[in-house]
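so i finally got all the pieces together for this one. its two components total, 626 residues if u count the protein bits. some of the lines might not be protein, just check the labels. i wanna see the whole assembly predicted at once instead of chain by chain like last time, that was a mess tbh
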Amino acid sequence: MKFKRYSIPYSLWLLVFIVIPLVLVVYYAFTTGDSQDFSTFQFNMENFKRFFTHIYTSVLLRSVNLALVSTVLCLLLGYPIAFIISKEKEKTRNILILFFVIPMWMNFLLRTYAWLALLGKNGIINIIITKLGFQPLDLLYNDSAVLLGMVYNFLPFMVLPIYSVLVKLDPKLVEAAEDLGANRIITFLKVIFPLSLPGVITGISMVFIPAVSTFVISSLLGGNKSNLIGNLIEQQFRYTGDWHFGSAMSIILMIFILLTMIFSYKFDKEKEGDGGGLW
Amino acid sequence: MKKIKSIAMIIIVLSILIVATGCGDSKPKLNVYNWGDYIDMDVLDQFEDEYGIEVVYDTFATNEDLYVKLKQGGSSYDVIFPSDYMIERMIREDLLVKINKDNITNFQKVGQSFLNLEYDPQNEYAVPYMWGTVGIIYNKTKVSQPLDSWADLWDPQYEGQIVMYNSQRDSLAVALLKLGYSINTRNIDELEQAKDELITQKPLVKAYMGDEVKGAVVSGEADVAVVYSGDAVTMIAENPDLEYVVPVEGTNLWFDSMVIPKSTQNQEGAEKFIDFMTRPDIAAKNAEYIGYSSPIPEAVELLDEEVKNDPTAYPSAEVLEKTEVFKDPMDIIKEYDRIWTEVTSQQ
């Protein structure tokens, strides 16, 4: 009874800020009309029909593709980093992790803008390249620049959960594996990696979700040249004012994200690890 | 119980703080919504000093941006700065109030050629702020021959050097002009052709930008770009290697004006502000600072000789003859939206 009374504010909060907006988004997605005037709304599937044409599905595929590549890159970079840091003494460990977190105190936009100065035609990297006698490279306004921006911005979200699992890993298990004759590679593959999977899975979803829905990175580093699904949604709300189509795309994106979550949680359950860090 | 008390205290303190910061000072407020980088900020301080009205200043990037924000409500602006075709649309949709001309003492100072324009034939709603053309800016040292046609933006030798506007109306206009069509065409077939042109051009384009285009061209990041005349003035001042040209096919002539939206809370203050901005010395200050062309002859007189005679900012009658003002696309706006989404989604 007591619990119930205290939970009222939270349920209210949930209702007002999560449930109602979601219902509205769904409502908009399945209607068309003047976004500002409810009386003009008509129920139909037009928005989804419009989305499932070649042009928009290819944007979705491109976004998912880029997000997957950036997630894999984050994992390949992030796992060794987390592993190395977790092997250090506690003091060094904390300092190293602090170094990882400090850039995140700076504004995300600012950090992304900084790459413009680095990658530009007359940017720092190209100045060094030309000084060394090479032709300047076209580093900015292409998919690689977008990918770089994603990996750079989201890497900490991969490192931190993996690190927090690895640090809590019972060293006795590793010792036991070694006592039983496993070499370091086998120990890693059979003991350490499987036990760190909860962290890996948390990391994957924490990188994949913002990467698949980003619009700032593709806009700044990609020069608005090829839309990602996030850009398309932004466009509908900010410039064309078609909330219906924008909502429909948001729903589709949410379903996509939900599917990846279900997939990773299933995986997680099977492995029975103990909670993965940040969530 | 103690806990509840302390939580209650925190809530009370917080709400007092919010209320206190919300309406702490009694100075009347004026919400101004203007294009980014489109005013000398000193002018705002001067207005606050002279009239005792606090200006809350905010900026937008495109007309469409402004329209959606206004239409969606939730924010009440007192003075906004849309362009010609957007003013037409806002009048049609009854989003603006008529300005009381008795309060705009400086209205008579506005040049004759900026009055009674099609978007506001009786001068009831809008007071012109700046005007200009759209053209191509390029780096003289980086091109083999001077550019003079919109078709030059489709020239493969400039691959990866071209910056287009990230704005549907402006970019579509470039393609329509290249094809020799009216920038106000209502023919879907012509619009489709323009779309195909933009898609063909896409591999040559470095980026679609907003205000960032200025920095990009001045610093040499890109060599060719579509820009508004006023931005060209500023850019050339910063980098003398740049040249602005109005292409032979003609171009878009535009007017940005000050209007008062229906949602205004302070029409009196808004009119004071518009009157202030139209005062020649203030208009000159703004024109000098942002590089755009003022519609107030007395203000132009106050500018440096060099600026006054600059054909970029104040083009000849000959150039102006081959221009067209945007009109409200009305129902075909849906087509514009669709076409632009398709262009930007193309890979």
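The mean pLDDT of chain B is 90.
Chain B touches chain A at residues 62, 64-65, 67-68, 71-73, 160, 166, 168, 202, 205-209, 219-222, 337, 341-342, 344-347 (CB under 8 Å).
anyway lmk what u think
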